[in-house]
Design a protein that fits this description.
Layout: E1 4-10, E2 15-17, H1 34-43, H2 50-56, E3 65-71, H3 72-80, E4 91-95, E5 107-110, H4 114-123, E6 128-133, H5 135-141, E7 147-152, E8 161-162, E9 173-180, E10 186-192
Parallel strand pairs: 1-6, 1-7, 3-4, 3-6, 4-5
Antiparallel strand pairs: 2-8, 7-10, 9-10
Length: about 190
């Protein structure tokens, strides 16, 4: 059985984007230091979007993931930049009840229940499934998330898009790994209990 892994950049106060949403990687509170880029390029190269992979000469299948799940708002960040599929090297599934047609034939648009879809994907053969965001989809999928990998930045922003955006829902995880990079970014890993 495959695992569903929520791997995301997060502030100290639990936000994955600022109040306006958009691309958080361009913000001062989510810098992309060289040591973090090196970790991603060597250990999680499939999580880099196509333009970054091309610029770095990264090719081939993923090491950990072969499928990426994304909410509509998160997906639209790429669309606004003119990228219809930031992850063509992965099976790309976007959840939306408002988009009627996928802007890219390689992106699967799903209007069905995210939990049922995730359960079906987890039962298939393959590598693990990466949940890239956003907060509303992460909240909907919380019962099926097996692992968290948080790229925690030493920043506080006070408000924005929470890591889990929805009503109260408790779920316990246990810490499994902590890496502190020279840049101050911490990579924290947790498994569901």
């Amino acid at each position: 059985m495959r695992s569903l892994v929520y791997m995301v950049a997060v502030t100290l106060d639990g936000f994955i984007a600022g109040p306006a949403g958009g691309d958080p990687s361009g913000e001062s509170f989510f810098p992309l230091p060289q040591d973090l880029i090196e970790v991603l390029a060597t250990e999680y190269p499939e999580t880099l979007p196509r333009p970054a992979r091309e610029a770095m000469g990264i090719d081939g299948p993923g090491k950990h993931f072969d499928t990426v799940l994304e909410g509509r708002s998160s997906y639209e960040v790429g669309l606004a930049a003119g990228i219809t599929n930031a992850y063509p090297h992965l099976r790309h599934v976007v959840f939306s009840t408002t988009m009627e047609q996928s802007p890219d034939p390689t992106v699967e648009l799903v209007a069905a229940d995210p939990l049922e879809t995730a359960r079906g994907l987890k039962a298939e053969d393959g590598l693990d499934i990466w949940l890239v965001g956003g907060g509303k989809l992460a909240h909907a999928l919380l019962p099926e998330i097996d692992r968290l990998i948080l790229k925690q930045h030493a920043s506080v922003i006070g408000s924005g898009v929470p890591m889990f955006d929805g009503p109260f829902q408790a779920r316990l995880f246990r810490p499994t790994d902590l890496r502190e990079l020279e840049s101050g970014v911490r990579i924290l890993s947790f498994e569901s209990r």
